[in-house]
Amino acid sequence: MLKLAVLLLSVAGLAQAAEVRREPFGETKAGVAVVRTVLRNDLGMTVAAIDFGATLTAIRTPDRQGRFANVVLNRPDIAAYETNQRRYGAVVGRYAGRITDARFTLDGTTHQLEAGRNNMTLHGGANGYDKRVWSSSLVSDRRSVGVRYRLLSPAGDQGFPGAVELTVTYRLMRQANELRIEYEARTDAPTVINPTNHAFFNLAGAGQGTVADHRVQIDAARYAEVDARKAPTGALPSVAGTVLDFRTPRRVGDVLKLDDRLLASSNGFDHSLVLADAATPAPRLAGWIEDPSSGRRMTILTTEPSVQFNTGNGFDGGETGSEGVAYPRYAGLAFETQHLPDSPNQPTFPTTVLRPEKPFRSITVLRFTGR
User: Cβ(104)–Cβ(94) under 8 Å?
Assistant: First the structure.
């Protein structure tokens, strides 16, 4: 068995060395060893992730008083991660979001995918990337320490064409409380790709009640309209005058209590919001989430064209975090930067086609402050 060690990474001139620690996190039911990597920057912020699902298990960041708490909902052990239904902090793929009727046509060939509820493919199906053990390696430079996860997805995996090599890098900045999530994908044949991270955040601290008091601002002027099955219709109406308008900051609980048709089908928010600027080569502001009680704010920047905003509507107290607390409805907010759902069947949406001659690259930045 590979021996795991504590690794100290330092840069000359820095007052305090950033630290990377790797440790066992148990074994899957199939007997595959899982490793947890813990990154620590010069300011004391830590980020933890495991090989299973390339899953973020903790982000410990300070409040306005300098007190640290983990703000990512999580599970206590690998057995819980294998059986959970919420994809806590995992990378989902090959395609995040829904694909209508579990099929799409690319270059004249129709590809049949795994059908789930309402004859949809969701997050790639039951054997998604969040249920697999990725390979991992450490990365570092003068500005950051990090861990890079790599997954090989063969042609025909989940029904998708083309073999894909996907890497996801979690890069913690040494002298700023900032986490960069970098995606890169390459294929040997035309396919579609749409990875994202499925973390739920509670900036008061994981297990500290609901996010009703959180304030949210999202720089999105339109949203993806869906039908009763949550299948996109192709229309991208304005958020103006709807409960989906977060261009001005709003308290989450004030909106959730409204009797509104856009909230009824999900008992809360689970909507694709189109950012004011389309996909950009450099990360630009997508929005922010703030907990007034602790003063923690998470500012999100991304190169992606949209965000799936979810208020943890499916939590029901049936799953417990490592804090020993059962997560109730609205225990966390997901802010999934990605392309729109069903883009392979929606020619007017930004394309998710990946071809051998042009790799897919995407960056999302999570910037934490204590106000």
Answer: no
